[in-house]
Amino acid sequence: MKTLIRNAKAIVTCDAQDHVYWNADLLIDGPRILKIGSQLPDPYDEVLDASGMFIYPGLINTHHHFFQTFVRNLKTIDYPNMTVPEWLDKAYRVFQLINDEVIFYSSLTAMGDLLKHGCTCAFDHQYCYTKSTGKAPVDRQMEAARMLGIRYHAGRGVNTLPREKGSTIPENMLETTEEYLQDCERIIQLYHDPNPYAMSQIVLAPCQPINSYPETFTETVKLARAKGVRMHTHLGEGENEIMLARWGKRTLDWCQDIGFIGEDVWYAHGWELTPEEYTVLGRFGSGVSHCPGPAILGGFPILPMREMMEAGVCLSLGCDGSATNDSSSLLDSMRTAWMMQAWHSKARSGCISPYEMLKIATVGGAKTLGRTDLGSLEPEKGADLFMIDAGKLELTGTLHDPRNLLARAGVTGETALTMVNGNVVFRDGVLTGVDEYALAQEGEAVCTRVLREPCEAFWNLC
């Protein structure tokens, strides 16, 4: 079916030439874009009136922990007033209780929030496997993604090292390397689609080097490269002191030695990386997902994004887990990241422009996930986009520059419309494929029964 999006006030393409089309149409055929131009004469099956709208490529989230969406807004797990070990100690007491119902409804919550704020393709780092979840988390997340219509890249995480050997992971959140690998093979077979316009893919993603045996990572590298899937982990977020004591080397050196590096690998956070390590990442073609929310809440160093880009590091944006962000809005993360860079540039030259931040959240995200079919609005790319209403009073005086508008003017509210794969999934405040209020009631009941009441009874946390 062909859909004509007609008479957009502006279409910001984020293509290699940075085209902006004014007073233009966009023609979609099924999942792909066919044409962009003024008063397109081509036949179509349906029309969407985009009068007064600015259109942007769908944002791409490259690091999140959906399961943490039900561990938000808790005074007793107050991340800004805790050290990371203190936070982990309290948070993992709650994480141990999570079951597959929590996985399903927390994922729906995060995915819905992402869609409402312009994110059309999301990666989630799912490392919460408990006795109650079994091996179901990715299956339940795929179910949620299909209901909402979001493109979903599932990161199959794992923790294998017990506390007595130096990890921070409770016993009932541990798996063996063998059972992890078996489940990876299962979900790759079920859900990994390498074709253009794929709606689901799998990433092998051990949680972090300090919480797993080395063979967990070495075997991940073997399996991922045999199956042609990408890899991901946390790196450079304060663990280097432990890695130096344990292995006599920094984490990136450890990853390089075992082959957990390359164009098919990206890392979350990276605020502890050095300029020399930026060069290493650039040489190998590896990426870093910058998560500004938890960086601010944790008081961590601001990434020198310009310096990293000049070294060849592929940068993208992530919301990160809601336990350290409390939000799944990538528009908000984009605004926050740009403001951080504006402050940072006062001490170091070369601020990232608001438009460059948009391209990091679109083109950079697509490159990070290996999606040559996404990230920009141009013929043959996937029809993933969002619209904002440029006619609203609060945007008066800004409309001459739609490329820089979002991050600079703080456009962080709900979109007017979000489209994924040629399908409208959010419009005029409504998620089109589900009864949002019924799901919210069901999810709240699950959160109370599985997490809040046991926490109150046993740990007085919630």
Summarize the topology.
Layout: E1 2-12, E2 20-29, E3 32-37, E4 46-49, E5 53-57, E6 59-61, H1 84-95, H2 100-116, E7 119-126, H3 137-148, E8 151-156, H4 177-191, E9 200-204, H5 214-227, E10 230-235, H6 240-247, H7 251-258, E11 265-269, H8 275-284, E12 287-290, H9 292-298, H10 305-310, E13 314-317, H11 330-344, H12 354-368, E14 385-389, H13 402-409, E15 417-420, E16 423-427, E17 430-431, H14 436-458
Parallel strand pairs: 1-4, 1-5, 6-7, 7-8, 8-9, 9-10, 10-11, 11-12, 12-13
Antiparallel strand pairs: 1-2, 2-3, 5-14, 14-15, 15-16, 16-17
Helix pairs in contact: 2-3, 2-14, 4-5, 11-12, 11-13, 12-13
Can you put this structure into words, describing what you see?
The protein has 462 residues and is of the alpha/beta class. The chain folds into 2 domains: 2-58 and 376-431, Urease, subunit C, domain 1, CATH 2.30.40; 59-368, Alpha-Beta Barrel (TIM Barrel), CATH 3.20.20.140. The chain is 37% helix and 20% strand. It contains 14 helices and 17 strands. It has helices spanning 84-95, 100-116, 137-148, 177-191, 214-227, 240-247, 251-258, 275-284, 292-298, 305-310, 330-344, 354-368, 402-409, 436-458, and strands at 2-12, 20-29, 32-37, 46-49, 53-57, 59-61, 119-126, 151-156, 200-204, 230-235, 265-269, 287-290, 314-317, 385-389, 417-420, 423-427, 430-431. The strands form 2 sheets. Strands 1, 2, 3, 4, 5, 14, 15, 16 and 17 form a 9-stranded mixed beta sheet that branches. An 8-stranded parallel beta sheet has the order 6-7-8-9-10-11-12-13. Helix 4 runs parallel beside helix 5 and helix 11 (330-344) crosses helix 13. The longest helix is centred in the last third of the chain and has 23 residues, at 436-458. The radius of gyration is 21 Å and the shape is globular. InterPro entries: Amidohydro-rel, Metal-dep_hydrolase_composite, Metal_Hydrolase, MTA/SAH_deaminase. One of its GO terms (molecular function) is hydrolase activity, acting on carbon-nitrogen (but not peptide) bonds. This is 8-oxoguanine deaminase.
